[in-house]
Amino acid sequence: MANETDLAARAADEAAAFAAIYDHYFPRVYNYVRYRVRDLDLTDELTSLIFERALTRISTFQPEKAPFGAWLFAIARHAIQDHFRAERRRRWLSLDFFVEHPSPGVLPEEAADQADTIQRMLNAVSQLDAREQDLIALKFTSRLDNVQIARITGLSESNVGVILYRALRRLRTLLNGKENSYDR
Amino acid sequence: MTDKELENRIDNDIAALLSDYSRLPEEAPGEYQEILQIAQSLAQNDMSRQSHERAALRKRLLSRIPAQTQGEAWSPNQNKGNQTMHPKFRTLIFAAISTVTLILVLATTPTMRTFAQDLWQRVGPFIIVNKFAQTQEAVLTGATPTPIPGGGNISAQMPVPMATPLPGEGSGQEVLAPDASASPTPLPWTNEVEPIDNQIAEEKYGFQVLEPGYLPDAYSLIEHQVNRTQDDSLVSIYVYTTTSTAFDAPYLSIQQSTFEDKAPIEFMVGDANVSQVEVRGTTGTYIEDARLMTVRDEAGNNITLPVNYLMWEEGSNFFVIDATQLSQDEMIHIAESLQ
């Protein structure tokens, strides 16, 4: 997005600037969350939380440290991590989790109106481990390069590349219905 | 090629894919190609149209930004790098510089000329973009496209006229027939609809449906629907055709919808001509020869037909007239006759 840094600098005080950022990044952030959590209502809830946080903190964005996209997706990633941590705590305390969250791959409310390709992809992504899911979602929604992803995740750049490649190979196996130990 | 070599290579190939979804390398082992196709699919999947919160969240967030600084008043925080200039002047100067720069680069640089085709204009809920949707590009180049449900320029709940059915998809995407659900125009916000009639639309929702007083010779009404969508938008659509039974029989639709406070929808019209026209006392947008309608001919081949669009805003309503065989003058004539 052109003038991203300038827009970000003005976004705390100028609705039009924030609106431009929101319109540009909403699909990417939503898709990132969707790849991670699967549940539609929860995706909306977390996406809202991410943009709420972004608006609250946007005056702290420092363009000299990272591009705006990297800053925003760092917030997104933290929000997802917070959610999973809270969910784990809740799961230890209550069996409600099993009622509230259908098992991966069974989303009857989506089955009717989602395309098969997306549904199959979401099912396959959900079978990757958490780190692979995180990197796949970041790579293909944020459009950040491996250097920026490495900074956000704390991995090395080469590690990001290797994990991504192996995760894609595993997705291929999962999508072809031939999951086996070789691809793990 | 070893795994290590492929690991090293894939980042470049993915970077190329992310900048241009159609760029799959030709020279690569079969498994590697499949992996890149998965990457392509991951990058193209747009699920954000499933969001029920997008418009409401936008409104909520924007309402929290102080009104007095929405481009009207100067605040010290607004321009940290340039505190001596009013933001209005900065915007004007920036716009002027951008325009001059754009003209210069258009005149001199072929690459930038291509980029300039991506400049957009906003009309109603649409951002008109002179670039191809993935499905459209694939059809035009003869490739089998990956369907992008809810993506590109087509509403998630509409049949996707541009997508060629893939083997194993059952009936696949609909080939256009002259009915209301097959309009090549992305109808805004049709996530779930409640059919209503003109009277309810007007009495209950204050939505006055306009009908055309003029139609070209031989055109007759096929279908009229008024729907209320899940997010309270109201949409009216009239569809007309002639008695022709040819696969490319004339198609005409007139859509009217409410559009305030909605997130914009990118409407990719490829290399169509986009111009501004006077219609019903306002400035509208005319799009000529947008290759957005695919029908199947008698032999079963997909044929892409050019569609012309006339769009304009009128009060809180947004109108779109689209037709396959009508001129700009005829479409404006129909628009002027709406009452």
Structure notes:
The complex is a heterodimer of chains A (184) and B (339). By secondary structure, chain A is an all-alpha fold. Chain A has helices spanning 4-11, 15-37, 40-57, 68-93, 96-100, 108-111, 116-126, 130-142, 146-153, 157-175. With 339 residues, chain B is of the alpha+beta class. Chain B is 28% helix and 25% strand. Chain B is built from eight helices and eleven strands. In chain B, the strands form two sheets. In chain B, strands 3-4-5-6-11-10-9-8 form an eight-stranded antiparallel β-sheet, with helices on both faces. Chain B has a three-stranded mixed β-sheet with strand order 1-2-7, with no helix packed on it. In chain B, helix 1 (3-19) packs parallel to helix 2 and helix 4 packs across helix 5. Chain B is globular. The interface between A and B is large, with 48 and 52 residues.
Number of helices of chain A: 10
Number of helical stretches of at least 4 residues of chain B: 8
Q: In what range is the share of β-strand residues of chain A?
A: under 5%
Overall 3D form of chain B = globular
- Largest sheet of chain B, if any? 8 strands, antiparallel
Largest interface: A-B, 48 and 52 residues
Mean pLDDT over the full residue set of chain A: 80
User: By helix and strand content of chain B, what is the structural category?
Assistant: alpha+beta
Q: What is the global morphology of chain A?
A: globular
Contiguous uncertain segments of 5+ residues of chain A: 91-113, 179-184
Please supply descriptive tags for the structure shown above.
heterodimer; A: 184 residues; mainly alpha; 73% helix; disordered C terminus; B: 339 residues; alpha+beta; eight-stranded antiparallel sheet; three-stranded mixed sheet; 8 helices; 25% strand
Topology:
The complex is a heterodimer of chains A (184) and B (339).
Chain A: H1 4-11, H2 15-37, H3 40-57, H4 68-93, H5 96-100, H6 108-111, H7 116-126, H8 130-142, H9 146-153, H10 157-175
Chain B: H1 3-19, H2 30-44, H3 54-63, H4 87-108, H5 110-116, E1 120-123, E2 126-129, H6 134-140, E3 193-196, H7 198-205, E4 220-229, E5 234-241, E6 251-258, E7 265-268, E8 273-279, E9 282-296, E10 302-314, E11 317-323, H8 328-336
Parallel strand pairs in B: 2-7
Antiparallel strand pairs in B: 1-2, 3-4, 4-5, 5-6, 6-11, 8-9, 9-10, 10-11
Helix pairs in contact in B: 1-2, 4-5
